Amino acid sequence: MFKKDLTSSSKSKVKSSAQRAIRARILETYPLLEPHIDTILPKKDQLELVKLPDRVSLYTLNNVPLFFQHMDDAILPHLTLVHKYPDCFTRLRIDRGAIRFVLSGATLMAPGLTSPGGRLPGDEQDGEGRYGREELEAGEVVVIEAEGKENACFVGVLKMGTAEMKKVKKGQACEAGHYLGDGLWGLQFG
To answer: Residue 62's domain spans which residues?
Structure first.
């Protein structure tokens, strides 16, 4: 989604009523963020909306990117927020072979998640339940971690459910979203 270098077109302050609605939508989508929401989006601070190309809205606070949204699609966390609160998001893991493709902006394919190095919810290899127990449905927002790496590298929306991925083991797993090193990652504010 953000392969090229981005330039923001306009920056505006979000009205307090809209800010409350955004906050409620974030808590509905990411309930594990509730203990941290007052730190992430303090009620008294002013949220700003940065308009990006292709009808993407980026929400920032004090020039720190927090969330972005394409038109009326799901609201997605920026990777800087994911790195700060990694346990608050639904996670999956790709194998080492898929890393270079994801970091070059390719669509995440199911083999990267279903191979021995990948992890999906309910995998036997996931002893501590880090990737969840319940299957995920198409349309859910996920954070993708990479085998052998500490921080998440990708945020996107599932194109197929995890149960289907385990069964067919091929096809597009996740829509192109925001990844380390893309235009959104490199966007400068000031």
So the answer is: 10-84
